[in-house]
C-alpha cells in the first residue's frame, strides 16, 4: 500500500518509513538468515512475505534503502542456496512436495515452487535495477551456476509430459508459469545488465554443470541427464544473446567447444532411456545451427527423420519436428531425397494422431518437408492433399490450424506438376459448400473462398465457383464471407481479364453479375467491414474491363461517394479514394469533365460530391498506405490542380491544426474542446501535399545532412520571381506520406510486382520524382502568377523543395 501511495505522497511515505527501516531490515535478515527447511512450509510463507516487501522497497523506495540493503545480501544468498537443496529433494528427485496446493487465507499459493518463483522475482528486480545490480555483480558466476540447477525438470513435469504431448508443447511454447521459466528470465536479465561478463559467467556455469553431469553418469546416477538437459535448456534460451553479444575469442571458443561436446556425446545416448534429453537436443540444435559443424547438423537431421517414424515417447517426436522445421530448409536436397518418402509417410501417420496443440507443429514440419521434397512432389500430392483438405474442413473455425493447413497446400501447389491435380481435388470439395452456404458450419464458407487458385488454372476455379461466389456477395451478411468472396472476384477479373466475359458462355450475364456484385459491395447500408475489399475489386474492373466500366462511370462515382460517406473504416475510405484517383487518370486529358461530373452530384452535408471528395481526400492523403496507392493518388492530385478549374478555388478544406493555448489538454478538456483546424483553399492544400511528397523524395535521395550543401551549390537567378517563391508564410500541412512508404515506392518496378492486383497498371511505371518535377516546372511556366500566389501559402521547407526542382 505504501508503495502505491509513494507516487503521489512521496514525502509523507518517506517520513513514515525512514525511522523503521533499520529494525525492519534487521528482522528481514534474521528471517532469511537460517537455511530453508523442507518440513516447514510456514517458514516458506514468512519468507515469501519478506521477499514481497523487499521487492516493493527496491521498486518504490530505492534511495531510502541504499544503506540498509547490504544487510540482507548474505541472508538472501543463504535462502537461495538452501532453497535449491530443498527444491532438488522435494520436486526434482521425486519426493513430492507434501504441501503442494497449500493456500493462505487470501487464496495465494504457498507451495515450495511458488516460494522459489517469488525468490527469482526478487532477484530479477535487483538485477534490473541500475542502483542494486552492483551489489551482486561479484556473485554473478555463482548466481548463474545455481540458477541452472533450478531449471531441472521436476518429477511432476516428467510424469505429465510423458503422457500428455499437448501439455508438453503448450508449456514449451507458452513458457508456462514455473521455476524453469522464472530462472531463464533471471539469466536473460543478468546478461542484459552485465553483457560480456555475464556471457563469460554463463559459459563457465554451463561447463561446470556439464562436467558434473558427466561425473554423475559415470557414477551410475539415474538422473544425471536432468542437469544436462537443464544446461542445454539454459544455453538454448539464451542463444540469441550468446551469439550476438561481443565476447572474447577465448569465451567464444569455450562456448563452441562445449556445444560441440554436448551434441556429439549426447546423440549417442539411448533415445528410449532419456527421451527428454533427446527432445531438448532436437529442439536446441537449430538454435545454434550457424555455429555447429556441418557433420553434426547432418547427423541430427537424419536422427530427427528417423525418430519421426519410430515408436518413441511423444516429447521426442515433438523435438524432432522442431529440428526438421529448422534444418530441412538449409539441408542439401540431394542428401535428403532418399529419406523424403519415408519422412512423408511418418508425418502423415503423425498428422492422423496429432491433437490440437501438436497439430500446428506437425503441419509446420510437413510444410518444410514439402518444400525440401519438390522432386517427389507429384508422388506425395495424392497422398497428402486429401488429408490436408479434410483437416482444413474439420478445423476451419480455428484460424491457426486452418491457415497452417492452407500454407501446406500452398507449398504443394507451388511444387512442380502439382497445380492441376491439386485444383481438381480442391474444387469438388469447395463447390458444394459454396452452392449451399447457409447450410455450412461457421467459417467454412469464408475458408473455402480463401483457397484461391493460381493464374494458370483460374478458369477451372471460375467454372466451378463463379456463380456461387456471386451469390454469396449478393446474399451474405457475414463480413468474412463477403471479404473473401470479393477477393475471389478480384482474382477472377485480374487473371481472366477480357476473356472472363466469355468463359460462362453468356457475356451479358457475366457483366450483369460483376456489376450487381459491385453495387452490393458499394451499398451504403452494408456494414463497412463487408465492403472492406471492394476497392481492390473495382480497381480490377477499371484496369481490365475499361470499355465496360466507361459506360457506368457516373453511376460508379455516385456509388463510391455514398459508400465513402457511410464508411466507418478509414482503410475502406482510403481504398475508395484510390478508385476515384484512378478515375481521374482515366479521364485525362479531359479531367475538367470529371470535375464537372462530380459538381452535378449531391453529397450529404456538402455542396456537391466534388467538395466532399476533396475534403476527404486532402485529410486522408497522408494515411494512404502502399507504394502503388500513394503514386496513383499523388499524381491524380497533380492532374486536378493542373486543370486550374474555376471551382477548385471555391472549395475550402482542412488546413493545419490550431494549437491550444489552454495549457495541458486533459481527456475532459479534449471532449469539451476537440481539435480545431484552419480552412484553406483547395489549390493551396493540393500544392502543399505535393510539396510534402517532394520533400520526402529529396530527403530519401540526399539525406537530411547533405540537403543544405546541395542548396548551396545551386545557381541563383534561375527564377525571375525567386523572391516571390520564397515569400515567408506560416501555413503547414496536416499530414504527409511516411518515409517508409516513399522508400518502398522509390524501388524499381520489379519490386512492386508482388502485388499482382496492381502490377498490371501502367501507372506503376511512373517515376514519381520525375513526374512531380515535370509538374512543378510546367505549372510555373504556364501560369507563374497563380503558381507564385499559391507558393506564398507554403512553409519555408516546402518552398525550398520546390525551388530545388525548378532550379534544376
Describe the structure in your own words:
Residues 482-772 form the Importin-7/11-like TPR repeats domain. This is Importin-9. One of its GO terms (cellular component) is cytosol. Residues 138-381 form the Importin-9 central HEAT repeats domain. The protein has 808 residues and is mostly helical. The protein starts with a helix and ends with a helix. 68% of the residues lie in helices and 1% in strands. The protein is globular and about 90 Å long. α13 runs parallel beside α16 (249-266), α14 packs parallel to α17 (275-285) and α24 packs parallel to α26 (458-475). It is built from 44 helices and two strands. Strands 1-2 form a two-stranded antiparallel sheet.
Amino acid at each position: 500500500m505504501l508503495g502505491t501511495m509513494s507516487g503521489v505522497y512521496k514525502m509523507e511515505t518517506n517520513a513514515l518509513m525512514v525511522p523503521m527501516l533499520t529494525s525492519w531490515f534487521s528482522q528481514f535478515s534474521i528471517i532469511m538468515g537460517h537455511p530453508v527447511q523442507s518440513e516447514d512450509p510456514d517458514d516458506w510463507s514468512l519468507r515469501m512475505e519478506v521477499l514481497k516487501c523487499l521487492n516493493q522497497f527496491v521498486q518504490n523506495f530505492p534511495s531510502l534503502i541504499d544503506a540498509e540493503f547490504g544487510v540482507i545480501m548474505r541472508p538472501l544468498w543463504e535462502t537461495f542456496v538452501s532453497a535449491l537443496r530443498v527444491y532438488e529433494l522435494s520436486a526434482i528427485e521425486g519426493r513430492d512436495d507434501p504441501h503442494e496446493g497449500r493456500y493462505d487465507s487470501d487464496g495465494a499459493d504457498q507451495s515450495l515452487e511458488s516460494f522459489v518463483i517469488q525468490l527469482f522475482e526478487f532477484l530479477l528486480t535487483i538485477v534490473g535495477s541500475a542502483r542494486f545490480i552492483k551489489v551482486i555483480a561479484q556473485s554473478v558466476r555463482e548466481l548463474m551456476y545455481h540458477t541452472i540447477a533450478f531449471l531441472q525438470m521436476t518429477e511432476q513435469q516428467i510424469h505429465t509430459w510423458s503422457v500428455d504431448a499437448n501439455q508438453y508443447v503448450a508449456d514449451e511454447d507458452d513458457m508456462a508459469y514455473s521455476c524453469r521459466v522464472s530462472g531463464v528470465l533471471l539469466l536473460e536479465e543478468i546478461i542484459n545488465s552485465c553483457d560480456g561478463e555475464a556471457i563469460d559467467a554463463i559459459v563457465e556455469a554451463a561447463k561446470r554443470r556439464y562436467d558434473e553431469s558427466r561425473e554423475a553418469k559415470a557414477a551410475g546416477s539415474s538422473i544425471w541427464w536432468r542437469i544436462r538437459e537443464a544446461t542445454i535448456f539454459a544455453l538454448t534460451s539464451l542463444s540469441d544473446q550468446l551469439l550476438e553479444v561481443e565476447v572474447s575469442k577465448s569465451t567464444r571458443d569455450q562456448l563452441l567447444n562445449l556445444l560441440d561436446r554436448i551434441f556429439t556425446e549426447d546423440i549417442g545416448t539411448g533415445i528410449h532411456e532419456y527421451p527428454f534429453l533427446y527432445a531438448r537436443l532436437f529442439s536446441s540444435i537449430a538454435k545454434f545451427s550457424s555455429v555447429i559443424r556441418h557433420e553434426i547438423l547432418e547427423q541430427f537431421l537424419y536422427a530427427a527423420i528417423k525418430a519421426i517414424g519410430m515408436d518413441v515417447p511423444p516429447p521426442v517426436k515433438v523435438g524432432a519436428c522442431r529440428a526438421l522445421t529448422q534444418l530441412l530448409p538449409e539441408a542439401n536436397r540431394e542428401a535428403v531425397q532418399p529419406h523424403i518418402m519415408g519422412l512423408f509417410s511418418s508425418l502423415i501417420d503423425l498428422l492422423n494422431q496429432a491433437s490440437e496443440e501438436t497439430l500446428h507443429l506437425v503441419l509446420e514440419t510437413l510444410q518444410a518437408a514439402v518444400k525440401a521434397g519438390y522432386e517427389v512432389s507429384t508422388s506425395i500430392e495424392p497422398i497428402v492433399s486429401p488429408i490436408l483438405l479434410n483437416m482444413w474442413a474439420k478445423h476451419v473455425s480455428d484460424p491457426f490450424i486452418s491457415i497452417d493447413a492452407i500454407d501446406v497446400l500452398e507449398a504443394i501447389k507451388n511444387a512442380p506438376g502439382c497445380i492441376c491435380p491439386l485444383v481438381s481435388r480442391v474444387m469438388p470439395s469447395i463447390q458444394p459448400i459454396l452452392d449451399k452456404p447457409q447450410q455450412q458450419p461457421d467459417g467454412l464458407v469464408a475458408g473455402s473462398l480463401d483457397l484461391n487458385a493460381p493464374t494458370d488454372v483460374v478458369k477451372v476455379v471460375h467454372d466451378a465457383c463463379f456463380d456461387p461466389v456471386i451469390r454469396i456477395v449478393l446474399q451474405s451478411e457475414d463480413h468474412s464471407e463477403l471479404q473473401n468472396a470479393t477477393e475471389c472476384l478480384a482474382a477472377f477479373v485480374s487473371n481472366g481479364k477480357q476473356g472472363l466475359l466469355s468463359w460462362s458462355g453468356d457475356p451479358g450475364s457475366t457483366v450483369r453479375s460483376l456489376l450487381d456484385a459491385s453495387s452490393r459491395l458499394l451499398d451504403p447500408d452494408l456494414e463497412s467491414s463487408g465492403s472492406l475489399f471492394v476497392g481492390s475489386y473495382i480497381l480490377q474492373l477499371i484496369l481490365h474491363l475499361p470499355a465496360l466500366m466507361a459506360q457506368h462511370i457516373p453511376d460508379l462515382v455516385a456509388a463510391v461517394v455514398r459508400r465513402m460517406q457511410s464508411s466507418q473504416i478509414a482503410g475502406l475510405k482510403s481504398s475508395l479514394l484510390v478508385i476515384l484517383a484512378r478515375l481521374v487518370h482515366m479521364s485525362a486529358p479531359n479531367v475538367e469533365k470529371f470535375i464537372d461530373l462530380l459538381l452535378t452530384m449531391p453529397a450529404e452535408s456538402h455542396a456537391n460530391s466534388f467538395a466532399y471528395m476533396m475534403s476527404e481526400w486532402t485529410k486522408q492523403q497522408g494515411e494512404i498506405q502502399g507504394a502503388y496507392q500513394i503514386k496513383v493518388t499523388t499524381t491524380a492530385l497533380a492532374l486536378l490542380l493542373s486543370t486550374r478549374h474555376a471551382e477548385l478555388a471555391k472549395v475550402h478544406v482542412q488546413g493545419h491544426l490550431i494549437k491550444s493555448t489552454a495549457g495541458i489538454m486533459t481527456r475532459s478538456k479534449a471532449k469539451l474542446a476537440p481539435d480545431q483546424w484552419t480552412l484553406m483553399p483547395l489549390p493551396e492544400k493540393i500544392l502543399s501535399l505535393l510539396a510534402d511528397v517532394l520533400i520526402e523524395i529529396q530527403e530519401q535521395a540526399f539525406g537530411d545532412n547533405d540537403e543544405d550543401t546541395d542548396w548551396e551549390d545551386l545557381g541563383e537567378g534561375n527564377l525571375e520571381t525567386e523572391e516571390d517563391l520564397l515569400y515567408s508564410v506560416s501555413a503547414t500541412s496536416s499530414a504527409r506520406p511516411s518515409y517508409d512508404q516513399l522508400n518502398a515506392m522509390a524501388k524499381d518496378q520489379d519490386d512492386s510486382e508482388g502485388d499482382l492486383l496492381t502490377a498490371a497498371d501502367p501507372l506503376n511505371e511512373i517515376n514519381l520524382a520525375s513526374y512531380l518535377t515535370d509538374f512543378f516546372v510546367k505549372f510555373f511556366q504556364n501560369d507563374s502568377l497563380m503558381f507564385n500566389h499559391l507558393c506564398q501559402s507554403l512553409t519555408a521547407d516546402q518552398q525550398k523543395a520546390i525551388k530545388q526542382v525548378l532550379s534544376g
